[in-house]
Design brief:
The protein has five domains: about 100 residues, Beta-Lactamase; about 120 residues, 2-Layer Sandwich (Beta-Lactamase); about 120 residues, PAS domain (Beta-Lactamase, 2-Layer Sandwich); about 170 residues, Histidine kinase-like ATPase, C-terminal domain (Heat Shock Protein 90), CATH 3.30.565.10; about 120 residues, 3-Layer(aba) Sandwich (Rossmann fold), CATH 3.40.50. The chain contains 23 helices and 27 strands. Helix 12 packs across helix 20, helix 14 packs parallel to helix 15 and helix 15 runs antiparallel to helix 18. The protein is rod-shaped. About 30% of the residues are buried.
Length: about 750
């Protein structure tokens, strides 16, 4: 009868989930117990007396295991039996020959291990960082991609590696304060973080943390998957940079898909069209060109896109508020990597300023052309007037002249003088006038004209003259500036028609680069003296304003104006390197502003006096041989006649080249050369320049209807005097005497 202890052992063995068996030396079962027999479809004690070798004759691997055990070898085997995975520990008993064994069903355990191995294989193959760590932050697994990301060798053991070794401090702070608590509460957490490479650099990542719990519900470990955001960050920064570039350009850039929905709308588009990006992105593009129907424009553009060409057209565009403006639009196709058309990009430019500049340029070119014509006509007319006036004076001074003709000759002389004044106005408009520039303070010039202006303005019109305390020093011809102010005031008087107010202001202003850019006619930034003439008359419309500076254009009744007043103002200002602007509103009045380049920061009267202290040429009398160089025969002949009548020996040439030849062959020395400026083959300036180089002892007088024409040369550099046409007998003689005396 078994003892109590033996009975307890038998009960334990019978109820244990194992198989306990024993074989004698011949391989016969002497023991077969355990609940694990059920996995083999056997019952306890069923195998006792059975031969192991007979029972498993068809399983050579099992027979080999038994022989090794019966031979006294201790071993562990894993075999498949009856569809289950059985793990057996074989040993030799101390009680005699034979062997005992304990078998355990490890099927589920093996399946779990295989599943784990497969999962780890998958995780090891993923290109993302995959790691597993304990709750106390020890790393237990790190896939190859993760090792490469942080620089750990693939064969380095993870013993001693902690999470803090793989993350920079700020990322660890977020893991501990945000990620782990959130994963424990909700199961997962995701967000931006960073890994730390062994070289110290940081890698931006998008990280997912998962908390894993045991069967008891406690957190067992954490796993994490992280994606490298380096390229994404770079791409995002590149896109951001490109977006900033597109925002920085002054052109509207609009992207649409093939359905016409807006995919991109830069800042310039917001400013140009009035819609914000939030209003239009994702919505159909607003109809920006009602006058140019979208379907027709789209069909035309698609034809270009089919040939992979851009499409450009000037259109009338509409803003959100309904305002219109001229725009140049270029549309180009957007294609994907495979070359398929996926959208359209449009670039729009506001042409308003360009159109204004084009109009200003056309006006300037027209004024320049008319000015050249006017100057040319006046120049030729001055030659004719020179002949007329000199012959008139010779007739009037003739001792045997007919006294009865004197009144008629005087009338002719008066008419020729009026004609000369008319040519001066034409030359002023053409910027070809003879200027005697000096440094003056405009305030003094306006103060000096105050009394005359008050007498000129009718009592029914109020005249207000305001003069700034700051000096307004400029280098101009004072007489011409006075003419400008006089003409502008007369123009204001005519505009008021007997009643109203005229305001004259003189001050100094500084145009910044930004302010100068807003002013028409491309005014350079800098300091300017400014004269403003404002009236409260009827004003002008745009059509009249566009023509007010044209010669012979007038709104006055026939016979009441030559149309040269404002034209001469324009020419004088331009020849003085200044600018004139007009603003006018019908029914409210007109404002003229004249800007002249200021001299020095704030020049004083002492400085202007110093700048004007140069001595002029001294007059004197004398005799000698004079060479007259003039291509106009009538002017040449009458000048010879006047000079010979005063006892001078006169030689003539028709151009500079002929004059040089005459001087080389003339038997007596030439004492003075009087030459016109504009002549064929060689002009007067070139002649004077060569004489200055080869014969500096010979003085030169330059004469012309305008001294600063095409060559742009300062005539004072090459001559001792200048004689402006038309000139009188006395002016010719005084100039010659002064040049010979100089």
């Amino acid at each position: 009868m078994p003892t109590a202890a033996e009975g307890l052992l038998e009960t334990v063995v019978a109820s244990a989930p194992v198989v306990l068996f024993a074989l004698d030396a011949e391989g016969t079962f002497t023991l077969s117990q355990g609940e694990g027999l059920g996995f083999l479809d056997l019952s306890p004690g069923q195998l006792v007396g059975e031969s192991f070798f007979a029972l498993y004759a068809d399983r050579p691997e099992l027979l080999a295991d038994a022989r090794r055990a019966l031979a006294g070898e201790r071993l562990r085997t894993v075999r498949e039996m009856n569809g289950r995975v059985i793990e057996t520990w074989w040993s030799t008993p101390n009680l005699g020959p034979g062997t005992i064994g304990v078998s355990v069903d490890v099927t589920e355990q093996r399946r779990a291990e295989e599943q784990k191995d497969r999962l780890l294989t998958i995780l090891d193959a993923t290109p993302d960082f995959v790691g597993i760590a304990t709750v106390d932050e020890n790393v237990t697994h790190l896939n190859p991609a993760g090792r490469r990301m942080v620089g750990l060798p693939l064969d380095q053991p993870l013993a001693g590696v902690r999470i803090t070794d793989l993350h920079p401090p700020r990322a660890m702070k977020r893991l501990r304060e945000d990620a782990f608590p959130a994963a424990i509460r909700k199961g997962t957490w995701s967000g931006e973080s960073a890994l730390k490479h062994i070289d110290g650099s940081e890698i931006p990542i998008w990280q997912v943390v998962v908390a894993h719990r045991s069967e008891a519900g406690e957190v067992a470990f954490f796993s994490t998957v992280a994606s490298d955001l380096t390229e994404w960050k770079q791409a995002t920064e590149q896109l951001s940079f490109q977006s900033r570039l597109l925002d920085a350009v002054g052109q509207a850039v609009i992207g649409t898909d093939l359905d016409g929905s807006v995919t991109y709308w830069n800042r310039a588009a917001e400013e140009l069209y009035g819609w914000s990006a939030e209003e239009v992105i994702g919505s159909p593009i607003p109809d920006l060109t009602p006058a140019d129907p979208m379907p027709a424009r789209t069909e035309q553009a698609m034809a270009f896109f089919g040939r992979d060409e851009s499409w450009t057209k000037e259109i009338e565009a509409h803003r959100k508020d309904g305002a219109t403006f001229p725009a140049l639009v270029t549309n180009a196709p957007i294609r994907d990597e495979s070359g398929d058309l996926v959208g359209v990009v449009g670039v729009s430019s506001d042409l308003s300023k360009l159109k204004t500049l084009e109009a200003e340029l056309r006006q300037a070119q027209k004024m320049e052309a008319v000015g050249r014509l006017a100057g040319g006509v006046a120049h030729d007319f001055n030659n004719l007037l020179t002949v007329v006036q000199l012959h008139l004076q010779l007739l009037l001074e003739a001792p045997d002249g007919n006294a009865a003709l004197v009144p008629d000759l005087m009338e002719i002389q008066s008419a020729s003088r009026r004609a000369a004044e008319l040519t001066k106005q034409l030359l002023a408009f053409g910027r070809k006038q003879v200027f005697e520039e000096r440094v003056v303070d405009l305030r003094d010039e306006v103060r000096g004209m105050g009394t005359m202006l008050r007498r000129l303005v009718p009592e029914s019109i109020a005249l207000d003259i305001e003069i700034s305390a700051r000096p307004s020093v400029v280098k101009v011809d004072p007489t011409q500036v006075q003419q400008v102010l006089l003409n502008l005031v007369v123009n204001a008087i005519d505009a008021l028609e007997g009643r109203g107010e005229i305001q004259v202001q003189v001050d100094r202003t500084r145009l910044s680069r930004a302010a100068a850019a807003e002013v028409p006619w491309r005014v350079a930034p800098g300091d300017y003296a400014r004269v403003t003439v404002r009236d409260t008359g009827g004003g002008m419309d745009e059509e009249v304003m566009a023509r007010i500076f044209e010669p012979f254009f007038t709104t006055k009744e026939e016979g009441k104006g030559t149309g040269l007043g404002l034209a001469s103002v324009y020419g004088i200002v331009k020849q003085s390197e200044g600018h004139i602007f007009v603003e006018s509103i019908p029914g409210e009045g007109t404002v003229f502003r004249v800007l002249l380049p200021a001299v020095g920061p704030d020049s004083s009267r002492a400085e202007t006096d110093a700048l004007n202290s140069e001595d002029g040429p001294r007059a004197g009398r004398g005799s000698g041989t004079i060479l007259i160089v003039e291509d106009d025969k009538a002017v040449r002949n009458v000048a010879v006649r006047v000079l010979e009548s005063q006892g001078y020996e006169v030689v003539t040439a028709t151009n500079g080249k002929e004059a040089l030849e005459i001087m080389r062959g003339h038997p007596s020395p030439i004492d003075l050369v009087v030459t016109d400026i504009v002549m064929p083959e060689m002009g007067g300036v070139d002649l004077a320049r060569q004489l200055r180089r080869d014969r500096p002892e010979i003085p030169v007088v330059l004469m012309s209807g305008y001294p600063r024409e095409e060559s742009g040369v300062d005539v004072a550099e090459f001559s001792v005097a200048f004689l402006a046409k038309p000139f009188t007998v006395s002016e010719l003689l005084e100039t010659v005497r002064g040049a010979l005396q100089a």
